[in-house]
Each structure stands twice: as structure tokens, then as C-alpha cells.
Design goal:
Elements (H helix, E strand, L loop, with lengths): L1 E7 L2 E7 L9 E6 L7 H8 L5 E4 L8 E5 L2 E5 L12 E4 L4 E2 L1 H13 L5 H4 E4 L3 E2 L2 H14 L9 H10 L12 H18 L7 H9 L2 H4 L3 E2 L1 H10 L4 E4 L23 H8 L8 E7 L2 E3 L12 H9 L12 E3 L1 E2 H11 L3 E5 L9 E10 L2 E3 L6 H6 L1 E8 L16 H14 L3 E5 L7 E3 L1
Parallel strand pairs: 3-12, 3-13, 4-7, 4-12, 7-9, 8-10, 9-11, 13-17, 16-18, 17-21
Antiparallel strand pairs: 1-2, 5-6, 14-15, 18-19, 18-20, 21-22
Helix pairs in contact: 4-5
Length: 444
């Protein structure tokens, strides 16, 4: 029980109140503000030093985060990036879709690089949905039939479709009777076979593959909702790692060239069972320029030598697919739109050093369509294709920022670049990335 004193309209009164969470828990959310690949994993790695739990809330192994520790590069697709710390518990929430063979392949790969105790520190929600091999087959078939949306063909979209059709397998099914589990799998594959007669969906092959993982995966399957709320009540600090990014959100992204989950702050609540009132900070991660993988509109895309230079200097290749990323100037109209949706409390700017050698830089600060300036980001993909970006031109700083470790040590024009972002969005930039290593982040 907590006794506290408060004033109401000038009068003092005493009240008694029982608080389940009287020990304050801090929940920080890290989200991508563009089309992904902003460097969220690096920011999560930085912040994870001070937390007890790191959780994923949506997406699947279509996401890719890289964390560099010394000379070792860890690539994560399903595992939360906080797994690199041996004292942190990691959660794969109910909103995530899990391809079990890929999860264990990722765990084994990172164990070989030196990570220890992964299985003892990983909790998988019993409500999370399972990506079967059949979902991946369907994903590939859909890409061929409907024209490429630029998906990773990891089965993510078809799994979320099965979730909405209410005929999919969940992790909790792996804890029950194996006969009932096989029956559910058989029914699912039978429906796929009817819908995709040209594809192979052999029940026995897929059943043997799934059953082979049961003994290993079962100890990690837990009630994640209870776990998270017990953690909150006990005052543990929690870091939520968003996958993909806001402009790929199924509702708010550049539909239909989006992913199949909610990559915004709302997905944190539905994907982990956390009340919105418990979230303390929402950090938007912003790459200092813009990149995108796959098809879809990209107003500031550069298809010239400047765009190629950004890609070459920034090593812009997808962690998950290896595809070369499309590159362009920073788009503040996109960032203002994603800030509207997520309510960023702080901004982290990454890869500022990639801009070190450019004579001049352009930043999109408006959109024009048929000579008329737009006040917001359009939903119509056709309109987006015809948008003319309005640019603010900034003189480049033409000097290296790689060894800068304080804000004051940055070149004057680099600081002007950061101020432009802050003033346009009305949000403070608190971290600035100037290299790959852990210590190459300036805390402002």
C-alpha cells in the first residue's frame, strides 16, 4: 500500500491507494521511422545495457538487424537484438510469426559466433503464430501470380492471412496432443492444396519436419502476457524492438508495397499485450538519408551517381535478402507523417558519416503535386508516384565524422543538418550514429 498526499483545488486530503505497480517500470519502444534498415538494432544494443528484458512484438524473419561487437557481426531476424547480453531475457511476443526451423538456424549460427545460453534466456509467446514451410511456398506462388510486391518470400504475409482466417497453428498447439496438432496441420495444408493446385504440400514431410523441433522448442513456449505484466509489476525495465518500419506498416505504409503487420506503436500493445499507458518513451530511428528494399513508391529516390554513391559508401544491402537497397535523400515529410502516428519522444539519427564526402545535401521539406504543395502524406499510391519533392539544400561538411564522440566535435554543417531535423519535427535528436562500432554513437 502507498500513502500519498495530494492537493485538489487548494484543499489537502489524504488517500489510501493500492498499486500493483508501485515500483515504477520503464518501457521504451524503438521504432523505424522510414522503410526499414535504419539501424534499429544498433540503438537497441546501446539501450539494452540498462534494461532487463528486450522484446519483439511483430513481424517475422523478414526483418533483419545487425549488431557489431568488436570484430563480430551478429545478424538477427527473429531473435531480439538484446540477446547479445547474457544477463537479458528476450521475448518473442504474440504478434510475431515464427518459422521454427529458421529460428533454430539463427540461434545455432549466433551460438557459433560466441553467444551463450540463448535457449535459457528466450521466451516465445504461446499465442504467437507459426510460419510453416507451406506458408513460404504460398508466398512464392503469390509473388509469381500477382506480380512482385518485393516480399522476402519468407511466408510472413500468408501466415498473417491464416491468422485472420483463424485456421493457423499457434505455439500453444505444440504443447498439446500431437495427434490434434497433426490434424490441424493436415487441415491447413489441405486448404492450401485446393487453393494452389500447382504446388506441393506433402503432409508427412512437413509433419516430420515440425515434429523434429518439438522437444527443443517446447521449454521456451510460455504465457508472455503474464510474463510481461509480472515484469512491469516488479519494476523491470523493458525495451521493445520494432521490426520493419512505419512506412511498411499494413495500415499506414505505402500500401500495397508494405509488410503484413503493424510496425507502429500500436503494434507494441497488440503484439505484447502491453497497455499504452505503460509506455514511457517512443524512440524513432532515422537514417540520415533514405533507403528502401523492393518495389513501391519512393519520392526522394536517386537513380543517378549520387544514389549509387550512397549505396556504395553505406553498404546498402538487405540483411535478410541481400538485395541492393534503393537510396535517396532524407525525406522529412515521411518523418513528420510517421511522427504523427507514433508520437516520437526522442530521435536517433544513424549513418550520418555516410554523408561526409558530399559537396551538398538535399533534404525534402515538402511535396508538390500539379503545382500545389501538399500538407500531408497521401494514401493514394498513384498520387505518390507523381509527387515532386521540394528540397532544402544544405552545404556539405566535407570532413570525417567517424572519430567524433561529442556533439560539439561535429562539423558545423553536420550540426545544422541535425538541427533541421529537430526543428521540422519538433523532437530532440538524442543519439547520432557515425560508424558501425558500439562506441560510434554520440549521446546528445
Amino acid at each position: 500500500k502507498l500513502w500519498y498526499q495530494r492537493r485538489v483545488r487548494g484543499h489537502k486530503r489524504w488517500a489510501t491507494r493500492f498499486l500493483f505497480d508501485w515500483v515504477m517500470s520503464a518501457i521504451t519502444v524503438v521504432l523505424g521511422s522510414q522503410w526499414g534498415d535504419e539501424g534499429k538494432g544498433k540503438i537497441v544494443d546501446l539501450l539494452a545495457e540498462k534494461v532487463n528484458i528486450v522484446a519483439r512484438c511483430q513481424g517475422g524473419n523478414n526483418a533483419g538487424h545487425t549488431v557489431v561487437v568488436g570484430d563480430t557481426h551478429y545478424d538477427f531476424h527473429l531473435l531480439p537484438s538484446g540477446i547479445v547480453y547474457d544477463n537479458i531475457e528476450c521475448v518473442i511476443g504474440n504478434g510475431v510469426v515464427v518459422h521454427i526451423p529458421s529460428l533454430f538456424e539463427e540461434m545455432d549460427k549466433n551460438t557459433a559466433k560466441g553467444l551463450t545460453g540463448i535457449e535459457n534466456r528466450l521466451l516465445i509467446s504461446d499465442r504467437a503464430h507459426i510460419v510453416t514451410d507451406a506458408h513460404q511456398t504460398v508466398d512464392g506462388a503469390n509473388e509469381k501470380a500477382s506480380g512482385s510486391l518485393g516480399t522476402t518470400k519468407k511466408g510472413i504475409g500468408p501466415t498473417y492471412s491464416s491468422k485472420m482466417k483463424r485456421n493457423n497453428l499457434r505455439m500453444v498447439d505444440l504443447l498439446g496432443d500431437e495427434g490434434a496438432l497433426k490434424a490441424k496441420l493436415t487441415k491447413l495444408l489441405s486448404e492450401f492444396a485446393q487453393a494452389y493446385p500447382g504446388e506441393s504440400f506433402d503432409v508427412e514431410t512437413q509433419w516430420d519436419r515440425l515434429r523434429g523441433y518439438l522437444e527443443r522448442v517446447r521449454p521456451m513456449i510460455k504465457d508472455s502476457v503474464l510474463f510481461m505484466h509480472q515484469a512491469i509489476a516488479s519494476g523491470k525495465n523493458i525495451l521493445v524492438e520494432g521490426a520493419n518500419a512505419t512506412m511498411l506498416d499494413i495500415d499506414f505504409g505505402t500500401y500495397p508495397y508494405v509488410t503484413s503487420s503493424n510496425c507502429t506503436v500500436g503494434g507494441v500493445c497488440t503484439g505484447l499485450g502491453i497497455p499504452p499507458s505503460k509506455i514511457n518513451e517512443v524512440i524513432g530511428v532515422v537514417k540520415a538519408y533514405t533507403t528502401r528494399v523492393g518495389a513501391g513508391t519512393f519520392p526522394t529516390e536517386l537513380t543517378d551517381e549520387i544514389g549509387k554513391a550512397l549505396g556504395d559508401i553505406g553498404h546498402e544491402y538487405g540483411v535478410t535478402t541481400g538485395r541492393r537497397r534503393r537510396c535517396g535523400w532524407l525525406d522529412l515529410m515521411v518523418l513528420r507523417y510517421t511522427h504523427m502516428i507514433n508520437g516520437f519522444t526522442k530521435i536517433a539519427v544513424t549513418k550520418l558519416d555516410i554523408l561526409d564526402t558530399f559537396e551538398e545535401l538535399k533534404v525534402c521539406t515538402g511535396y508538390r503535386l500539379n503545382g500545389v504543395e501538399l500538407s500531408s502524406f497521401p494514401a493514394d499510391h498513384g498520387l505518390l508516384e507523381r509527387i515532386e519533392p521540394v528540397y532544402t539544400v544544405i552545404e556539405g561538411w566535407k570532413s570525417s565524422t567517424i572519430d567524433c564522440r561529442t556533439y560539439d566535435s561535429l562539423p558545423g554543417q553536420a550540426k545544422a543538418y541535425i538541427r533541421l531535423i529537430e526543428e521540422f519535427l519538433g523532437v530532440k535528436v538524442c543519439w547520432i550514429g557515425v560508424g558501425q562500432s558500439r562506441d560510434s554513437i554520440i549521446v546528445v
